[in-house]
Structure to design on (288 residues):
């Protein structure tokens, strides 16, 4: 029988691959010889990646996939499975964005949009690929969470809400898929140099000069700007190892503050953590 490279090459679907972590992950997998489906909401933003893939001879495509749309996800996953004969070895749930602002100044629609992309979008894409993975009794679902799913800071409640939700959802999913030979992991990055904060979205009502949260918002933004951020190379290597390990652990913390912010928080009493937050953000209770 003739060697069929299309069906034997390992296949990975990556969401949000137009920039940042998603793009870097797509390049890494392609260099390792995988067939890479680097999906993105706007494929026109993938022109540079497609040119790089063409020059390098990679098996890489950049189809449209909007994680907030049932039709878009069904179309993209359906096309992929038809092209690969039903094969998908790994899903990298990476699409997401960063919303911030005081919770009182965040509208329900803004909070809903954050959860729709960062949480429901992960659910939507994952459930679309699971029947194919179950049929082959193999596959790995990697979701990019965050150290923000293990700690809480003022001014980023919407983002925390989404990443904390992923912690529970993905852990439950891991148990559900064990009988089908499907591995489920959660990568928890600390701060990295990506477009996440370049493209962050502030609540429309936040930042007003007369806002009761103006001073706190200013402190948060100053601290965020001064935060040390690592290069994505180390993160992408962890994503690849998480996707290819035969017996992966559930959580993969990586990068600045991933240990101190995530693991140590579990051993820090609430009263002590609150005191640290009050000091860091200059939060003072009113005098009675």
């Amino acid at each position: 029988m003739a060697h069929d490279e299309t069906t034997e090459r390992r296949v990975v679907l990556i969401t949000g691959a137009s920039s940042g972590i998603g793009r870097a992950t797509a390049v890494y997998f392609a260099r390792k010889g995988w067939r890479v489906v680097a999906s993105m909401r706007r494929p026109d933003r993938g022109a540079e990646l497609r040119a790089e893939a063409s020059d390098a001879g990679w098996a890489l495509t950049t189809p449209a996939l909007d994680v907030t749309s049932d039709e878009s996800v069904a179309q993209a996953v359906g096309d992929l499975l038809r092209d690969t004969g039903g094969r998908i070895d790994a899903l990298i749930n990476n699409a997401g964005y960063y919303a911030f602002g005081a919770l009182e100044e965040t509208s329900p629609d803004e909070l809903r949009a954050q959860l729709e992309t960062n949480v429901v979008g992960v659910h939507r894409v994952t459930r679309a690929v699971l029947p194919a993975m179950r049929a082959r009794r193999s596959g790995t679902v990697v979701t990019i969470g965050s150290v923000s799913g293990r700690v809480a800071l003022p001014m980023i409640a919407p983002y925390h809400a989404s990443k904390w939700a992923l912690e529970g959802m993905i852990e439950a999913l891991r148990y559900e898929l064990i009988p089908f030979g499907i591995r489920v992991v959660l990568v928890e990055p600390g701060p990295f140099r990506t477009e996440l904060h370049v493209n962050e979205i502030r609540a429309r009502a936040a930042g007003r000069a007369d806002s009761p949260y103006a001073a706190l918002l200013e402190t948060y933004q100053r601290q965020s700007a001064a935060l040390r951020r690592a290069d994505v190379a180390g993160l992408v290597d962890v994503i690849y190892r998480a996707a290819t390990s035969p017996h992966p652990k559930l959580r993969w913390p990586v990068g600045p503050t991933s240990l101190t912010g995530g693991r140590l928080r579990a051993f820090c009493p609430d009263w002590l953590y609150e005191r640290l937050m009050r000091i860091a953000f200059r939060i003072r209770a009113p005098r009675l």
Confidence is low (pLDDT under 50) at residues 1-7. The CA atoms of residues 77 and 222 lie 41 Å apart. The chain has one domain: 5-280.
